[in-house]
Design goal:
Two copies of one chain form a homodimer.
Chain A lengths: L3 H8 L3 H8 L7 H13 L6 H8 L4 E5 L9 H17 L3 E5 L4 H13 L5 E4 L7 H9 L3 E4 L9 E4 L1 H14 L5 E5 L5 H17 L4 E4 L7 H10 L6 E4 L2 H13 L9 E5 L13 E4 L2 H17 L7 E4 L2 E3 L6
Parallel strand pairs in A: 1-2, 1-3, 3-4, 4-5, 5-11, 6-7, 6-8, 8-9, 9-10
Antiparallel strand pairs in A: 10-12
Helix pairs in contact in A: 1-2, 1-3, 2-3, 5-12, 6-7, 8-9, 10-11
Chain A binds a DNA duplex through helix 2 and helix 4.
Amino acid sequence: MSTIRDIARRAGVSVSKASLALNADARVRSETRQRVLDAAVALDYHPMRAARSLSSGRTWSLHLLDPALGATLSSGFFTRFLRGLHDGARDGGFTLTVTVPQDEGEARTILKRLIAERWSDGVVLMNPSDDDALLTDVVVAGFPHVLLGRSPVAGVSTVDNDNVAVARDATEHLLAAGRTSPLLLNGPEHRTFAQDRERGFRAACTDAGVEARVLHVDGPPEAVRPLLEGHLDEGLPLDAVVAVADPHALVAMRTLKERGLNVPTEVAIVGMNNDDLTRYTDPSLSSVDLDAHALGRNAVELLLAAIDDQGVGAGHRLVGHTLVIRESSL
Amino acid sequence: MSTIRDIARRAGVSVSKASLALNADARVRSETRQRVLDAAVALDYHPMRAARSLSSGRTWSLHLLDPALGATLSSGFFTRFLRGLHDGARDGGFTLTVTVPQDEGEARTILKRLIAERWSDGVVLMNPSDDDALLTDVVVAGFPHVLLGRSPVAGVSTVDNDNVAVARDATEHLLAAGRTSPLLLNGPEHRTFAQDRERGFRAACTDAGVEARVLHVDGPPEAVRPLLEGHLDEGLPLDAVVAVADPHALVAMRTLKERGLNVPTEVAIVGMNNDDLTRYTDPSLSSVDLDAHALGRNAVELLLAAIDDQGVGAGHRLVGHTLVIRESSL
DNA sequence: GCCCCGAATCGAACCGGTTCGATGATCTGC
DNA sequence: GCAGATCATCGAACCGGTTCGATTCGGGGC
């Protein structure tokens, strides 16, 4: 393993000049710089990360902190988001590190260590639960960060979809085809994304002059079944379902079929997240693609801006979505 | 931010003794150690990662290098594997870093930098393509590593399932129910896992005295459709399908239904990887769970052993699997 | 009472980079 | 031709830990 001192010796310059040359500093003549670079190539020199971090104060790494490891979202969403983060980080010369705490408490401990031990220059927060402590921590510490989703705490940078529009678009698509009794299978009532989606759903229903019905699913996708059966048992009309996530849509589809209702002729369904397998189900599932990759890239952009300029305030980005129409809503 | 010198000063000891105390060295009296620890807590001291790395030569981080980011596997598999890696790393006091090269060439560059810049103590290799260069690199460098899958190159540590048994179990399950015309929808012929699974499939067929038919799918899951249609058009008998991955199974299921064949009564199907959504499809899909979490944990264990004892040779671990029976093979 | 050994302790060196401050050389302008 | 500014250059300090080697101290054995 060669060090910068080896390079300096071979190029016949001092260590300090070698460092400046390698970092393209203007104070070194281009002819000298070339000699240093040649030496570096000849000796297959690579600066040691730890040493560089120690002296420069930059770690050149970003951190993803996700208590659920994307478990509550569709799995395809998580990998695409990760890839988006990664691509952005790489373009900025950064590395991506992932930590998966078991719960919110551990997440806080890890976040504190992460900041105190200075092993990352910034952090991406995913899926924090309703406890705002984590977000408050990061704001108080003034540490570069970005949250996926909408923040209940002020001063937090965020990247998100326009969830109102996401739900409105899905609903309008169903209503435009002449459906008149739509149902929203929504997430837990207290989560902001669920509130936004409900607002979008209701707006579309109002515009079309139809009644909006909403069920809140708290728990695994299987919880959809009894809720939906209850809805049908009450004799309420139903010819369109908007589901907060694809697994919920699939459980709904299955439940409806078992009750003798055909999808999509009698009931049309649209899910969200555009999970990998949606195109292979029977019938294939329409879904709103949230462009997880773009969410990731935008998250990193905000993060890098905060790192470069610590004084910058909280930033916010909204990322576009796409309705992917498949058989379940034809 | 407090440093170890602050701790030493407050505890009234030298910096060196503070360091020893913090690392629980036997040379320091427990009473003195306590004083140091108290000082550390009082000042909320956290040793800076970069400094520790530089002096100790350990980065306390592991690296996952995956050109495909699990894209070729079911998405649920990747996150479970990642979680297994993460849990193992955490128990060993390590951090997990993920890098996602665009292709095999970039993967090699990154691997070389990773080793040269010493930003990880070990690397987990996933999905290297058929090019053996990457594996050869890591063996030549003598760098701690572990490969997910079977290695075509000698001297590589591996973690894998017993793919022969995986396919045999799935096939036996179908044949035990009285099926007599099984078909294996396998992966690319040149991949070792596909070869192993074919062997297991054929073994089970031979034992049961039925003819083994195999189709090789190279490309996206959609490629299953024309292959399977060709098989049916030839008039070949078919009452059982073993698919190399769940998406393939779903495409097969769909194709069969469109040809008027009922699943599972006329044709039973078993997939592999036990993807998240398999339980929500219609009918729900039987699948072999490869215990991705255990694969991850075992990978880390091998890695840590190699890091602690550089002299240790290549290690190999086989992880058990579980057949999850659902409606598609009843 | 003396010597030896081990334990406790500390200062200093070290890891491999970056950056500051001083020095000497070259150039400009009058 | 010389003062003053500009520039290249280098040694040394620094980042914050770990670890080596030397020193001091106390206790046990003869």
